[in-house]
Each structure stands twice: as structure tokens, then as C-alpha cells.
């Protein structure tokens, strides 16, 4: 009788490590703003860590950011806030964007944001899409509140969240020059720092980090 009991106890210890979730991988073109009723604040330097989500229906809000090199200058063109809703269980989810190399292509994407979500086998994950549009210049936006209002509509990408699923956002105010007048998030300086940091070799990155830590 001892072996079955030991086996049962051992099995009880496994769920935490064996349990799988949905892992959303971000790339340098994605500025994730919110997911499943929670606000998200990305990093300025380094690669964004994947977001781990519980299995089931997912709703994400993000911007697509294109960096356009024109001679020695770099221009950043941002899309409106895109809302995507999809179902996934125990999967790795990746973004698949068109190749955007010119300002014209970036503006065309902004008008008609066509992209795909792929799983770990590069199979297409179906999703519904919407947009959080905001007119005029804003120093800050409450994306969680905007999504709550969006989710009260009949938009295909809307998601009905219960009160227990909604996390109250921490208010933040971001100022500075932004690339697109009706989009607020990272400012121009942050994009430039992030872009050139990614271009640098490891020795330069280490010196830069040392400088930041010393100030």
C-alpha cells in the first residue's frame, strides 16, 4: 500500500511545475499596453520578457511601432491602439507582422493593420480585432478604463470581464514629444534610446548600464 500512497503524494507535488499556460512573446515592434484587464508597462532597455497568461480567452491591447531608417535619421511610426481577442490553451503565441521598411508602408499599416498570431508550430491562431481610438493630444491615457468601455460594446474583440478579473490600474503620467499626435505611450526619447541600445555591442551596453546605475 505504501507505493500507491507515495505515488499519490508525488503527483500532488507536480501540478505547479507541470501546469502549462499561454506564453505571449513580444518583439521590438510591439508596445504592449494592457492584457486581460491589467495595465502593462514595458521596459525601456533590453528585450521584453514574454507575458504568461492563464489558459482561455485572451484580450490584448498594443501598438505596432515601426522604426524607419532614413540616412542617419531614425523615424518611429506608431499605429493606433489595436485590440485583439483570441482563445489559446497551453500554447506559445507569436506576432507575425508584414515587412515594414518605409514611412509609406508604416502609414499604410496604420490605416489597415494586417497581422497574424502564430502558435509554436507556426499555425495561424484565429482572433478578433478592434481599435481603441482617441482624438486629440493626451499626456496620459487609462487603457484599462478604455478597454472596460470597449468591452461594453458589441465589437468582435470585446471581452466581458467579471469584477474579480479586473485589476485597478496604477495611474501614470508620461510627458514628452511623441511621434504620432493621437497616440501616447513611450515618448520619442525612449524609442531612440531603446533603438540605439539594441544596435550596440555588448561592451557598449555594459558601459551604458554602468552609467545609468551610477546616476
Automatic annotation (TrEMBL):
Q: Signal as a keyword?
A: yes
One Pfam family hit: DUF2057
Question: What range does the record give for the signal peptide?
Answer: 1-20
Q: In the UniProt record, does the keyword Ligase occur?
A: no
Q: Which UniProt keywords apply?
A: Signal
Output the InterPro entries linked to this UniProt entry: UPF0319
- Family as reported in the entry's similarity comment: Belongs to the UPF0319 family.
The entry's protein name is UPF0319 protein ACED35_15840
Species of provenance:
Enterovibrio norvegicus
Query: What does the organism's lineage look like at the top?
Result: Bacteria, Pseudomonadati, Pseudomonadota, Gammaproteobacteria, Vibrionales
Amino acid at each position: 500500500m505504501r507505493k500507491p500512497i507515495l505515488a499519490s503524494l508525488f503527483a500532488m507535488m507536480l501540478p505547479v511545475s507541470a501546469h502549462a499556460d499561454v506564453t505571449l512573446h513580444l518583439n521590438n515592434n510591439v508596445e504592449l499596453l494592457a492584457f486581460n484587464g491589467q495595465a502593462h508597462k514595458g521596459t525601456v532597455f533590453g528585450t521584453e520578457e514574454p507575458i504568461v497568461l492563464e489558459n482561455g480567452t485572451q484580450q490584448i491591447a498594443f501598438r505596432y511601432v515601426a522604426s524607419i531608417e532614413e540616412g542617419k535619421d531614425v523615424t518611429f511610426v506608431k499605429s493606433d491602439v489595436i485590440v485583439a481577442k483570441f482563445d489559446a490553451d497551453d500554447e506559445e503565441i507569436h506576432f507575425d507582422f508584414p515587412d515594414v521598411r518605409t514611412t509609406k508602408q508604416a502609414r499604410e499599416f496604420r490605416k489597415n493593420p494586417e497581422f497574424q498570431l502564430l502558435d509554436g508550430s507556426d499555425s495561424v491562431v484565429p482572433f478578433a480585432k478592434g481599435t481603441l481610438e482617441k482624438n486629440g493630444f493626451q499626456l496620459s491615457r487609462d487603457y484599462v478604463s478604455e478597454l472596460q468601455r470597449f468591452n461594453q460594446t458589441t465589437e468582435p474583440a470585446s471581452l466581458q470581464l467579471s469584477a474579480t478579473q479586473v485589476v485597478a490600474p496604477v495611474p501614470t503620467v508620461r510627458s514628452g514629444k511623441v511621434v504620432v499626435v493621437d497616440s501616447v505611450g513611450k515618448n520619442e526619447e525612449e524609442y531612440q534610446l531603446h533603438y540605439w541600445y539594441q544596435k550596440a555591442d555588448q561592451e557598449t551596453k555594459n558601459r551604458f548600464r554602468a552609467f545609468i546605475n551610477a546616476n
